[in-house]
Amino acid sequence: MDTGRQNILIVKLGAFGNIILSLAAFAAIRQHHANARISVLTSKTYADWLRTFPYFDEVLVDPRPAWWDFATARQLGRVLADGHFSRVYDLQTSTRSSRYFRLFPAKCRPEWSGIAFGCSHPDRDPKRNILHDTVRQQGQLRQAGITAFPPADLSWCTGDIARFALPSDFVLLVPGSSPQRLAKRWPAANYQALARLLAERGIASVILGATAEKELAAEIPAGIDLIGQTSFGDLCDLARAARFAVGNDTGPMHLIAVSGCPSITLFSRDSNPTQCAPTGRWTRILQRSDLADLSVGDVMKELPA
């Protein structure tokens, strides 16, 4: 563990689920650099939430300069140089984040853990692109000298769900996904059928999602519509109170699983659970090439007691 006062930068631009899968890495870096000032560079969408994380002293917003936008890139370069960072942990390890290595002046580039060409602490694992995010990040950090990895933790993230006046016995359904990846969605009619079957057992279904997914609530009238009404903290509290959750491969399912809620995540051919399955104390994966081929009965058989 380093004991000196350093300036450390973590690069994690998104997306939602990937940020959740980086929680253990965030905690490991904070534990290793206990006395450091740690900044994180992230997308505007997640900046306010990351400001509540206990691991960071500062949140920087990525302006996402296009490769030809030299003015914005120079501006970002000045922000990075002004941080006087001694080490950068690039947990995004994308083409974009690797480009940011070159924004530091060559004569005073910090140590860099990632995959940028010429960086000081490259991730040399030839299998890195087929590993689960959490395993890959641990391997990357081990190569940079970090060997202790606390478990992912969201106990500090809380909201206020009393205002929803929910019944005492409920489950969470997450029927949405990125609008660019509709193949990741189990048909809304199946969620409706599942909600009706659960209602027959006296269990309410709470429907969660982003505001842009509001139309899904109309297709699942048997559920309680909270789409677009929850904060990240609310989602954590709902997960702690729910009996279990069923949802597509989308960001909220990662948060729900890490918060301790028994979770069944549905995967299509559009994503690979080997690389990005939610992690938590009780998680199950159901996968079909086409999620339309996954029956409600198949899901019912996997529900926790």
What attributes does this structure have?
single chain; 305 residues; alpha/beta; Rossmann fold; 2 domains; six-stranded parallel beta sheet; 12 helices; 12 strands; elongated
Mind explaining what this structure looks like?
- The chain has helices at residues 16-20, 23-32, 44-50, 70-82, 95-99, 133-143, 188-200, 215-219, 232-241, 251-258, 273-276, 296-302, and strands at residues 7-11, 37-42, 58-61, 87-90, 111-114, 121-122, 170-174, 204-207, 224-225, 245-248, 263-267, 283-287.
- Strand 7, helix 7 and strand 8 (204-207) form a beta-alpha-beta unit.
- The model has no long low-confidence stretch (mean pLDDT 97).
- The protein folds into two domains: 7-143, Glycogen Phosphorylase B (Rossmann fold), CATH 3.40.50; 162-302, Rossmann fold (3-Layer(aba) Sandwich).
- By secondary structure, the chain is of the alpha/beta class.
- The strands form two sheets. It has a six-stranded parallel β-sheet. Strands 9-8-7-10-11-12 form a six-stranded parallel β-sheet, sandwiched between helices.
- Helix 9 (232-241) crosses helix 10 (251-258).
- The N and C termini lie far apart (43 Å).
- The chain is built from twelve helices and twelve strands.
Q: In CATH, what is the class of the largest domain?
A: Alpha Beta
CATH architecture of the largest domain: 3-Layer(aba) Sandwich
Looking at CATH, the homologous superfamily of the largest domain is Glycogen Phosphorylase B
**Rough shape?**
elongated
User: H/E element string?
Assistant: EHHEHEHEHEEHEHEHEHEHEHEH
**What is the straight-line distance between the termini?**
43 Å
Sheet bearing the most strands, described? 6 strands, parallel
What is the CATH topology classification name of the largest domain? Rossmann fold
Low-confidence stretches: none
The count of helical stretches stands at: 12
Helix content: 25-40%
How many structurally independent domains? 2
In what range is the share of β-strand residues? 15-25%
Rounded mean pLDDT score? 97
Strand order across the largest sheet: 3-2-1-4-5-6
Radius of gyration: 21 Å
Structural category is alpha/beta
Annotation, overall tally of beta strands:
12
